[in-house]
Specification:
The chain is mostly helical. The protein has two domains: about 1-35 and about 145-305, Rhomboid-like (Rhomboid-like fold, Up-down Bundle), CATH 1.20.1540.10; about 40-130. The chain contains twelve helices and three strands. It has a three-stranded antiparallel beta sheet with strand order 1-2-3, with no helix packed on it. It starts with a strand and ends in an 8-residue tail after the last helix.
């Protein structure tokens, strides 16, 4: 295990905006996300019989819309004889805004009674989804209100999700706040998150799955740090075991952060099956990283070494 641990020009225990952002993320998690609201979306749609029916309907929809590139790519990955594939297709169908929109004007079943019952269950399910905290605070094609672009950046699905994002905010944030100042640092965090949201919606044009998490914003911080201090050395902390000299600090070129953290996100994004959620919004990571990297290059080009301090 190895991660960047820059020298600081701020005391981690002072009142500063890194601590305020961490506190905001933690408070929002314990206020809204410690209790599951999955009960709100329970539905017969997820029973084996109805899941098979949904998969059949969605398969017909995809075949009738083969001119849409994402639909074609999804079908190329689909094996109708594979039970797992049919389950994935059923789950994806209920999160595809174009498919959900199509059922109002077209029937995918000759049995009108069965079709009517299924449509009614879908309508009820969609209404219940909108009552979920995840939907209300997350960002998706079903919820793109102004406040959701900010609330999603402070919302987390589980404790590990929260911890991993706050760890990097804790490690990188103080150094960046000392460099950019409080306002500059907060703007970097917020606009990296907005860029991550834009990438998520652009590269997932049909999904109704809400995105939550500070990953896009944190990716922007990591990318900014990596590219701004590209040629300098940064202190890293390594831990192999608790004995001997298997843990401690060492100095490495800052650019090693790029293959360590940013390149894996790019590879994971490229490996995703179109239309199928992996549970991680790699596109948001890339959007935040792109914004942070471009901002770092811009500042370096326009301000030279005026802001630069030793990392």
């Amino acid at each position: 295990m190895i991660f960047p641990w820059p020298r600081l020009f701020l005391n981690r225990f002072d009142i500063n905006f890194v601590n305020i952002l961490i506190l905001a993320n933690v408070l929002l998690f314990f206020m809204f996300f410690t209790q599951s609201d999955e009960e709100k979306v329970k539905s017969k749609l997820f029973s084996p019989a109805y899941a098979e029916l949904t998969a059949q309907y969605y398969f017909k929809y995809l075949n009738s819309n083969m001119d849409v590139g994402e639909n074609k790519k999804l079908l190329l990955q689909y094996d109708s004889n594979n039970t797992d594939h049919r389950a994935i297709l059923s789950s994806t169908a209920l999160r595809d805004k174009n498919f959900i929109g199509s059922i109002e004007n077209r029937s995918w079943d000759n049995d009108e009674v069965r079709w009517g019952n299924w449509k009614k269950m879908v309508a009820e399910y969609q209404e219940r989804v909108k009552q979920q905290t995840l939907f209300m605070l997350g960002l998706s094609h079903g919820n793109k209100q102004t406040f959701s672009w900010f609330t999603y950046q402070f919302s987390h699905m589980n404790l590990w999700h929260l911890f991993s994002n706050m760890l990097f905010l804790f490690l990188i944030g103080y150094s960046l706040e000392s460099l950019l100042g409080a306002v500059g640092f907060v703007m970097l965090y917020i606009f990296s998150g907005i860029a991550g949201g834009l990438f998520y919606l652009y590269f997932n044009p049909t999904t109704l799955i809400p995105m939550v998490g500070a990953s896009g914003a944190v990716s922007g911080l990591i990318s900014f740090y990596a590219f701004y201090y590209f040629r300098k050395n940064t202190r890293f902390y390594y831990f192999l075991s608790p004995s001997g000299n298997n843990f401690g600090h060492m100095y490495l070129p800052t650019f090693v952060i790029i293959p360590m953290y940013l390149v894996p996100d790019l590879a994971s994004f490229a490996a995703q099956i179109p239309g199928v959620s992996s549970g991680v919004a790699f596109s948001a990571h890339l959007g935040g990283a792109l914004f942070g990297g471009l901002l770092a290059f811009t500042l370096k080009a326009t301000m030279g070494t005026l802001l630069e301090e030793a990392a």
